């Protein structure tokens, strides 16, 4: 998969998955499979946080020769924003529009910036192109979790 593929897939997923989410039984969106795991609302909230953090990475990597940004404590972010109490259609709309925007941002990244080394938290540096492709892989992983939890 390359960056152009990510752009196409992000746009497609934003449309199709948002429709799928809005069609889900809202009674299942706040239900946690067990007390130690996230509900579908919280997983979607995590994806909103991921989009927000990656937005910074995608934009900032274009203005430097090497990017270093902190990671983030996912459980704190999800808990502190109260995603489980949020309005489901609002979360879906926010996630959808953030991903459509990310697709536009990624489409505009000059090819010569794909190789900018990015250090996130304590991780080893990786090329911006890897961060972009990994974002989509991460998104797909959590989409599967949401689907599984909504169907349980």
Fold and architecture overview:
A hairpin with a 5-residue loop joins strand 2 (117-120) and strand 3. The protein has a three-stranded mixed sheet with strand order 1-2-3. The protein contains five helices and three strands; from the N terminus they run H-H-E-H-H-E-E-H. The chain has a single domain (3-151), classed as Four Helix Bundle (Hemerythrin (Met), subunit A) (Up-down Bundle), CATH 1.20.120. Helix 1 (3-23) packs antiparallel against helix 4 (88-107), helix 1 packs parallel to helix 5 and helix 2 crosses helix 3. The radius of gyration is 16 Å and the shape is globular. The protein has helices at 3-23, 40-60, 74-80, 88-107, 128-151, and strands spanning 67-69, 117-120, 126-127. The relative contact order is 0.21. By secondary structure, the protein is mainly α.
State the main characteristics.
152 residues, mainly alpha, Four Helix Bundle (Hemerythrin (Met), subunit A), 6% strand
Question: In a nutshell, what does this entry contain?
Answer:
This protein has 152 residues and is mostly helical. It has helices at residues 3-23, 40-60, 74-80, 88-107, 128-151, and strands at residues 67-69, 117-120, 126-127.
């Amino acid at each position: 998969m390359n960056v152009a593929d990510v752009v196409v897939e992000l746009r497609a997923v934003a449309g199709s998955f948002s429709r799928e989410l809005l069609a889900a039984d809202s009674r299942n969106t706040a239900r946690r499979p067990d007390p130690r795991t996230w509900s579908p609302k919280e997983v979607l909230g995590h994806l909103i946080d991921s989009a927000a953090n990656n937005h910074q990475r995608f934009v900032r990597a274009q203005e430097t020769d090497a990017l270093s940004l902190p990671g983030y404590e996912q459980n704190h972010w999800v808990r502190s924003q109260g995603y489980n109490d949020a309005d489901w259609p609002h979360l879906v709309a926010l996630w959808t529009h953030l991903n459509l925007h990310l697709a536009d941002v990624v489409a505009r990244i000059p090819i010569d910036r794909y190789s900018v080394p990015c250090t996130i938290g304590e991780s080893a540096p990786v090329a911006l192109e890897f961060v972009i492709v990994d974002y989509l892989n991460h998104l797909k992983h959590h989409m599967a979790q949401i689907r599984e939890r909504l169907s349980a």
